[in-house]
Amino acid sequence: MKKFAVIGNPIKHSLSPLIHSEFAQQSSIDLTYEKILADDEITFISTIQNLINQGYAGVNVTLPFKGYAAKISTTKTSEVDLTGSANTLSFDHNAIAAHTTDGIGLVNDLLEKIGTLSSSSILLLGAGGAANGVIPSLLNEEISHLYLWNRTIQKSFDMANHWHKSYENISVMENVDFKKIDIVINATSAGIDNTASSPISLNDSHKEIICYDMMYGRQTPFLKSASDNNLAFFDGLGMLVKQAAASFEIWHEQKVESKSIEESLRSTLI
Ligand code: NDP
Q1: How does residue 114 score in pLDDT terms, banded at 50, 70 and 90?
Q2: 32: CATH
């Protein structure tokens, strides 16, 4: 039986074991999948080595170790190279192959929910790992423009400089102009804390805008603002399930159906 795990800190609330065991059942694959807490970078690296020694086939990596996962890999996809982040590692003896599936998880979820991204103009809020990690996948969808905004705006300018080496149609939108935007994606963590307000106000938005928050399992201030303004909105649960589906496909070379899992998780999370 193949062995897998997800490593992070914190890890207690991870839904990945549940999602992967549902996929395994769907595909009639026997596997184990557990949660592992690592204290810090050193423990993370020693845990990976122990898992390789114990014959594990691969791991998912979550916060705050995605950058370290990219660094310790022996081979990586171009997307891992570009984003400096990996959430899926496959082990073959001592070789570690790194993939990142967050971007494809987000894009597949957006495609399922709104149809196409082609020619859309997107405003991406945030400048952390999640925002940077999804940029190549968004830009591969032939969107018309990607605008960046962050509370600490200098980070958006740094981010735009970094991504300009690979893509032209990215710029900073310091003062939000909704007329130029079709979709707003919230990749900030302004929602973990119930007292936070929405990173941007949606009160002046036009009614066709689509709002997407990468966070799930709670009504964030951003999604509440979208709801209060009668805008279309989605949370990040579909992204979570679809990034897991992409990991599963990498490890087992089998496609899985994710919609029913998203629906059953949603009913347990509410
Ligand atoms: P980071 O800690 O790397 O970045 C946090 C970002 O949020 C920064 O841009 C920060 O801005 C901003 N921020 C924090 N608090 C506020 C606030 N009160 N108002 C405005 N901006 C704020 O986090 P990640 O990028 O790793 O994760 C971001 C979110 O994405 C998390 O909620 C995470 O759960 C979610 N996520 C969901 C996934 C899914 O599968 N659905 C996958 C990955 C992430 P500043 O620079 O100014 O501090």
Answers
A1: very high
A2: 3.40.50.10860
